[in-house]
Design goal:
It is built from 18 helices and 18 strands. The protein has an eleven-stranded mixed β-sheet, with helices on both faces. It has a three-stranded antiparallel β-sheet with strand order 1-11-12. Helix 1 runs antiparallel to helix 3.
Length: 556
């Protein structure tokens, strides 16, 4: 892959120089000074209102209350005890003032605003009274009830996390799950293995199957089995039950020896896997399903196939995938040139971006839910981490090769996929408008990593007919959305053109899982029914191991 004009991937055979501090151009100092001056009345006004609110808190007249769903203040002591109630209100008043300043100050770019929001959230969440023993009435009561036993367990949990979890509180008890038994348990076999991937074929459970198979392309930054979680919560299991022939890619977990693997490497491996699927199924076409960063790789493959006149892909589904990075999102706060330069340097020096570091970045983007919540439950309350399949998968981290990491940063920084010819993959200049296969694109209303309006804009880049579906969930929960949850909602509407908010206002709301909607959509593009195969693989590609294979067990 090549990126033009300025930030083409650099050679990674040697350790790059350490990044130098990025200095602001002199011309930008005036605009920054102007923003500081403009912020003075905003800060002053917020300060006056904060002092007034603190006065009302002291007099017991404040009506400040925690937001609906803020579990930090769920203990009844916060409402019944005057001292704790005033402490809570004072804290919330300060948070409100900080938020007022951040939202009231004018920023030249939405990325600057997201950075300010991130810093504000980090500070206010860190100094919440609930994070300290005496400031957390539930923890104080637990300590008295257990005779200090909860605090002893909390200390042991803290020491264990320092030694074995990089100092971060554990989010899950992974010992409760075994990959291949409790997770990634759909029956199947490895039918192809190369140095980049294993290809899994799943055993049919219906008498007949559709003739055009499906292959799932997961992100390189996660293990593939979030699409094959516990039975009953697996999209792969669901698709097999619908009479589809399903294959899935399981990426090898790279080390520094694979530092030069890039989009060419991964796209070429996918095309080799498509050859194997054609040999096994005797189908001239295949449906592809790219997920998150795997959707970026999938789009590069589709572009190359269009460029060379290869029509083997019949349709493409994209799960929470950003091809257009122009939509404002919290992740945009990472786009500062100095941060990107540092990220390139670190992965270039190590040969990989290690999975734990990447996971920490995403964790601190939601500090209340993913950090301090577990500090309280594990350390102050002395509890054990929960057992939850999504969290168990999330803790099973993977590495990202330095070359691919650098290219993803190029896509993120320059929004290169939206500019025809700005990139080349497998020798084909990328122009997603020439990808004319039917596409099914999903987004989630509360997705903080790939905002739904960005997924909507990504659908508009493609040149074929696109169907956009919006779920009422976050990033992973959008994909892990089995039927039967009464709280599940999704919206369907016209083809994604124009303004995403206008689309949503005119869209039709449905109760249930979008999986069922996708099942009908993909079924119409999966060919005729044929007798289900009784054996997996083929004479040229015999089964090598039972699913979930071997690559899924390699650790970061």
């Amino acid at each position: 892959m090549a990126v033009t004009p300025s930030d083409a991937p650099r050679g990674l055979s040697s350790v790059p120089d350490a990044p130098e501090p990025t200095r602001s151009p002199t011309g930008s100092l005036g605009s920054r000074a102007a923003r500081v001056v403009a912020a003075v009345p905003v800060v002053a006004g917020a300060g006056r209102r904060l002092l007034g609110e603190l006065g009302r808190v002291t007099l017991g007249r404040s009506e400040v209350a925690p937001a609906k769903g803020d579990r930090r203040f769920a203990d009844p002591t916060w409402a019944e005890n005057r001292a704790y109630h005033q402490m809570m209100q004072a804290y919330l008043a300060v948070c409100g003032a900080v938020g007022e300043v951040v939202e009231g100050v004018g920023f030249g770019d939405w990325r600057d605003r997201e950075r300010a929001r991130f810093v504000a959230t980090l500070l206010t969440s860190t100094f919440a009274p609930t994070n300290a023993l005496l400031g957390n009435p539930a923890a104080v009561k637990r300590a008295f009830e257990t005779g200090g036993g909860s605090l002893g367990r909390g200390v042991r949990n803290f020491v264990d996390d320092v030694w074995h979890n990089g100092g971060m509180p554990r989010q899950v008890d992974r010992s409760a799950f075994t990959v291949g038994r409790d997770l990634a348990a759909t029956p199947g076999a490895v039918v192809h293995r190369d140095e980049v991937l294993e290809l899994l074929q799943y055993r049919p459970v219906t008498g007949t199957v559709r003739s055009v198979p499906i292959v799932v392309v997961p992100p390189q930054i996660n293990k593939y089995y979030f699409m094959d979680l516990a039975p009953g919560r697996s999209l792969i299991e669901f698709a097999v039950g619908q009479g589809q022939q399903v294959f899935a890619i399981s990426w090898r977990n790279p080390t520094s020896e694979q530092r030069d693997w890039d989009l060419d490497t991964y796209a070429g491996a996918i095309i080799s896997a498509l050859d194997v699927i054609a040999d096994i199924t005797r189908s001239e076409q295949v449906n592809v399903f790219g997920l998150c960063a795997g959707g970026i790789t999938t789009s590069a493959v589709l572009n190359h196939l269009a460029d060379v006149g290869d029509d083997r892909v019949r349709s493409a589904s994209f799960g929470v995938t950003l091809l257009d990075w122009s939509a404002p999102a919290p992740v945009g706060m990472l786009s500062a040139p100095a941060l990107l330069k540092l990220a390139r340097w670190r992965s270039g020096r190590a040969g990989v971006l290690d999975g734990r570091s990447l996971g920490s970045v995403f964790t601190w983007m939601r500090p209340n839910d993913l950090v301090w919540n577990y500090v309280v439950s594990n350390y102050l309350l002395g509890g054990d981490p929960p057992t939850f399949d999504i969290l168990a998968w999330n803790a099973d981290s993977t590495n990202l090769p330095a070359a691919l990491h650098g290219q993803f940063l190029d896509v993120f920084e320059g929004n290169a996929l939206t500019v025809p010819g700005a990139m080349t993959v497998l020798g084909s200049p990328v122009d997603l408008s020439r990808v004319t296969v039917d596409a099914y694109v999903t987004g989630g209303t509360t997705d903080h990593l790939t905002p739904w309006n960005g997924c909507f804009a990504s659908a508009r880049l493609l040149g074929g007919r696109s169907t956009f579906v919006l779920a009422n969930t976050g990033h992973i929960q959008t994909l892990v959305c089995p039927p039967g949850n009464p709280k599940s909602r999704y919206w369907t509407g016209a083809e994604p053109t124009g303004d995403p908010q206008a689309w949503r206002q005119s869209a039709t709301e449905h109760t249930g899982s979008w999986w069922e909607n996708w099942a009908g959509w993909i079924d119409a593009r999966s060919g005729t029914r044929r007798k289900a195969p009784t054996r997996l693989g083929s004479s040229h590609c015999p089964p090598l191991d039972d699913a979930p294979g071997t690559y899924v067990f390699t650790q970061a």
